[in-house]
Amino acid sequence: MVFGFYTTQPIFITSFFITSKYESCGGCCEFSCMLNSRCSRDSQCQTGLYCFACPAAGSAFSASYCTRSDATPTSAFPKNTSLPFNKYAWLTTHNSFAIFGSPPRAGTPIITFFNQEDSVTQQLNNGVRGLMLDMYDFKNTVWLCHSFNGKCFDFTAFRPAIETLIEIKSFLDNNAMEIITIFIKDYVNAPFGLTKVFTSAGLMKYWFPLSNMPVGGADWPTLDTMIQTNQRLIVFTSMDKEATEGIAHQWNFTNENQFGDDGMKQGICINRGGSSVMSDTTKALIVQNFFPNNPNPIEVCVDNSDALWNELSSCYSASGNRWSNFLAVDFYKRSTGGGAFHAVDTLNGQLECGCLDITSHCSCSSSEMWEG
């Protein structure tokens, strides 16, 4: 595998739907510019938007526009938190820890791919609720590394895992209505290595126990129940540690499509290695990946726009007419407008009431229904 790294600050890019009409919001209209309005600084855009340009989408996008930067909270959904967990969709960041600009923590510069640009805390504050973390044995503890051959090196190591887990705990401490899911790509072989690091981070009080996870495709508990019992952290691992550590083996509970370039081919949604076929209804949760083999901070604003939205229906069909629950992307805020946030709104609208967008409050007319 060839590794690369970025030597310049990534360009901030905007969007989701690529539309033909964009309006200027000139002057000094602080915090008043709407989605897809021309802008020159973040402070001109309304709450939940930021000022971003996506030149990779063509000359029309060389200028900056107000672009989505946070997710619609479940508190704003028509049915709020009353549905089973598997009846919601959650924005998920691929390699959530591989953050551009991360300082070298293992003594040498980081020379590997970067997939995000916000801290994990910023991701969570912006509505990300699924985190993909690669955990390795390293320096006598557990580290987050973007590495290869199952081994972490100084130049692929980002930080001790406990630091990111403490960020997650802080968020759960301060947001009593929120639920987070962690997907661990697991290279930890030390006995009880994961248990020790989650315990040290103080996260066990939020742990959703393996014994409560439904099998055979049955519905999960409602968000209300999970919140009331304070079981607000779901953890899946790629290594089977159910018998040894009581941590859920991901492939017993989720279907997941192919990651990388093959997972982005339009009209195709096949399962990745380890996962059962997408149409296996004995798994109640569906993870949909949409990111290339090699992260590209310039082109990703195009990937996270129409191409992403169009691919939702492909995985719906492949999954036995079931919508995805986790949508995993690189550089999650970059798009040509609504981006990954709008895609998740679409998934939640379909899951909750068959609407094209959860923000339509389930008052969908036939013209609003999915036709993808």
From TrEMBL:
SUPFAM superfamilies: PLC-like phosphodiesterases. InterPro entries: PI-PLC_domain, PLC-like_Pdiesterase_TIM-brl. CDD domains: PI-PLCc_At5g67130_like. This is PLC-like phosphodiesterase. It comes from Sphagnum jensenii.
